[in-house]
């Protein structure tokens, strides 16, 4: 009687296990289909395997039940069936969790509304007595209406509420005039977006601004920007992506200098990518400047749309379809997650920003922080910003090759997606990214990545951002710009570009 009861309990347990196995199998298949990333052949193969495993467990359980005389064999089959079922359930749950995480990551970096972040700081002189905004409530504060005034007004309101009284402000035409007033003692504090620190230190005579001042308080202001609807089939039609690299640790879309300015032209039909680098100090006409000129890097201070429109005007491009803003922290993580990248250097050098790293002429295998040192270096390179641009494209090309010509995408899917979440803000639709991943997994193989860059010569000029002062700029070489226009036109018309086509 007891043996019969035990048998009945086991049958109930086994059936519950089979039901759970079937449910978990259905969930992971449904989740895989929903992501749109995995090719249908992979999903179909996984479905067949899961059905076979369900049938196998069913047969093992029932064979044990029917062959009562072969007790040892029956118990073995029962145990084996139970183990297989538990492993399948655990595997399905783990796989579902990974796929859900990936979907969440894509939703995060491709959310319908981009969240833009402004960091506003209160500056005083290094030796000032004030340690907080409360200590400075009787100060005169320098402000400017030239850039980000809406955020500045919000900060002033926040300060007034915090102090319980209105602070006294003095308006100036530019950030440099604010700094001059602070140095001269006409004001004792200034309110400015932290992004403009770099504009000040790039200006001749103000390189030591950050050592002469300090921040006693800071405020973060965020606002949403609607993303425009895209109607591009990224698997069939050429498209352009603006890759902007900023020295920011924020996961939000930031108004900041863009130290990386690469246009990626993608032809999904002939599987070619063309990377065009424009030096950060290129002396161009910002789209908002009404004919005045500024460094390309400063366009990012007015929003990523300004950078995109400026580059589109420079190269006579009708539309740059997408952007991807990359921050340095996430960049390091991504490089590590894909197992590093292989790049080529024209010369041997040591990093000025990361002195612990040196690079040899020719091939270099780089992990996270060392790759970051490679793309940020310009001072120890004979060709300065032009060489840095080439290095940046080397790393981008290395990442593309690693993801498309190795097992990295399949073996570390989750880690790569996690790194992207902390690295990129983009206006790509999640379905577009899923479709591209699906296409790559289906077809496999590498892409033909070509790189080239426009060039120029250094000079000292006044800029739109700092109209009263001179700063280092790179005067465009018009012949290289015209050549770039011709190459772009051929690429967008469907031609496959050769190395010879890129030679001036």
Please provide a brief summary of the model:
Helices cover 46% and strands 22% of the residues. The chain has 504 residues and is α/β, with parallel strands linked by helices. A hairpin with a 4-residue loop joins β8 and β9.
Describe the SSE topology.
Blueprint: H1 2-35, H2 40-66, H3 71-109, E1 113-125, E2 140-144, H4 149-163, E3 168-172, H5 175-184, E4 189-193, H6 197-201, H7 209-212, E5 213-226, E6 239-246, E7 253-254, E8 260-267, E9 272-277, E10 283-284, E11 294-295, H8 296-299, H9 304-314, E12 322-327, H10 328-337, E13 341-345, E14 349-350, E15 358-359, E16 362-366, H11 368-376, H12 384-404, H13 408-411, H14 413-421, E17 424-426, H15 430-443, E18 448-453, E19 456-462, E20 470-476, H16 478-492
Parallel strand pairs: 1-7, 2-3, 2-4, 6-12, 9-18
Antiparallel strand pairs: 1-4, 1-5, 6-8, 8-9, 10-11, 12-17, 13-16, 14-15, 19-20
Helix pairs in contact: 1-2, 1-3, 2-3, 3-14, 10-11, 10-14, 11-12
Note down, in words, how this protein is organized.
- By secondary structure, the chain is α/β, with parallel strands linked by helices.
- It folds into 3 domains: 2-97, no CATH class; 113-225, Periplasmic binding protein-like II (D-Maltodextrin-Binding Protein, domain 2, 3-Layer(aba) Sandwich), CATH 3.40.190.10; 230-502, Aminopeptidase.
- Helices cover 46% and strands 22% of the residues.
- The protein contains 16 helices and 20 strands.
- It has helices spanning 2-35, 40-66, 71-109, 149-163, 175-184, 197-201, 209-212, 296-299, 304-314, 328-337, 368-376, 384-404, 408-411, 413-421, 430-443, 478-492; strands at 113-125, 140-144, 168-172, 189-193, 213-226, 239-246, 253-254, 260-267, 272-277, 283-284, 294-295, 322-327, 341-345, 349-350, 358-359, 362-366, 424-426, 448-453, 456-462, 470-476.
- The strands form 6 sheets. Strands 1, 2, 3, 4, 5 and 7 form a 6-stranded mixed beta sheet that branches. Strands 17-12-6-8-9-18 form a 6-stranded mixed beta sheet, with helices on both faces.
- α3 (71-109) runs parallel beside α14 and α10 (328-337) crosses α11.
- The protein is globular.
- Mean pLDDT is 85; it is low at 66-70.
């Amino acid at each position: 009687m007891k043996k019969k009861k035990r048998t009945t309990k086991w049958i109930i347990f086994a059936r519950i296990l089979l039901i759970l196995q079937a449910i978990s199998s259905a969930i992971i298949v449904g989740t895989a289909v929903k992501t749109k990333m995995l090719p249908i052949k992979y999903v179909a193969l996984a479905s067949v395997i899961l059905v076979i495993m369900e049938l196998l467990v069913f047969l093992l359980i029932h064979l044990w039940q029917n062959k009562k005389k072969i007790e040892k064999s029956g118990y073995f089959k029962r145990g084996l069936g139970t183990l297989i079922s538990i492993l399948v359930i655990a595997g399905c749950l783990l796989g579902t969790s990974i796929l859900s995480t990936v979907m969440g990551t894509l939703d995060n970096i491709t959310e319908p509304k981009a969240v833009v972040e402004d960091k506003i700081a209160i500056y005083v002189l290094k030796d000032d007595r004030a340690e907080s905004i409360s200590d400075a409530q009787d100060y005169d504060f320098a402000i400017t209406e030239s850039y980000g005034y809406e955020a500045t007004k919000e900060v002033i309101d926040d300060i007034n509420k915090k102090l319980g009284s209105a602070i006294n402000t003095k308006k100036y035409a530019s950030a440099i005039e604010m700094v001059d007033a602070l140095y001269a003692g006409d004001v004792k504090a200034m309110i400015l977006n932290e992004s403009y620190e770099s504009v000040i230190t790039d200006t001749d005579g103000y390189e030591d601004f950050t050592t002469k001042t300090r921040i006693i308080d800071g405020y973060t202001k965020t606002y949403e920007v609607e993303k425009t609807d895209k109607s591009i089939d990224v698997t069939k039609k050429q498209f352009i992506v603006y890759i902007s690299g900023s020295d920011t640790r924020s996961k939000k879309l930031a108004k900041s200098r863009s130290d990386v300015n690469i246009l990626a032209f993608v032809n999904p039909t002939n599987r070619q990518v063309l990377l065009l680098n424009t030096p950060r100090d290129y002396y161009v006409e910002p789209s908002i400047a009404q004919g005045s000129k500024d460094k390309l890097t400063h366009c990012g201070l007015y929003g990523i749309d300004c950078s995109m429109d400026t580059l589109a005007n420079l190269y006579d491009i009708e539309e740059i379809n997408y952007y991807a803003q990359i921050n340095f922290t996430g960049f390091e993580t991504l490089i590590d997650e894909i197992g590093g990248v292989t790049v080529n250097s024209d010369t041997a050098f040591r990093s000025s920003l990361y002195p612990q790293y040196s690079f040899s002429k020719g091939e270099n295998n780089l992990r996270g922080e060392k790759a970051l040192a490679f793309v940020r270096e310009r001072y120890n390179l004979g060709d300065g910003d032009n060489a840095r641009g080439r290095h940046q494209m080397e790393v981008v090309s290395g990442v593309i090759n690693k993801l498309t010509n190795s097992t990295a995408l399949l073996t570390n899917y989750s880690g790569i997606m996690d790194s992207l979440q902390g690295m990129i803000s983009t206006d790509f639709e999640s379905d577009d990214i899923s479709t591209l991943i699906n296409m790559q997994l289906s077809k496999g193989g590498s892409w033909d990545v070509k790189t080239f860059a426009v060039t120029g010569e250094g000079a000292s000029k006044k800029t739109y951002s700092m109209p009263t002062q001179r700063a280092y700029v790179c005067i465009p070489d018009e012949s290289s710009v015209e050549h770039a226009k011709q190459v772009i036109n051929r690429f967008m018309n469907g031609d496959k570009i050769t190395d010879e086509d890129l030679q001036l």
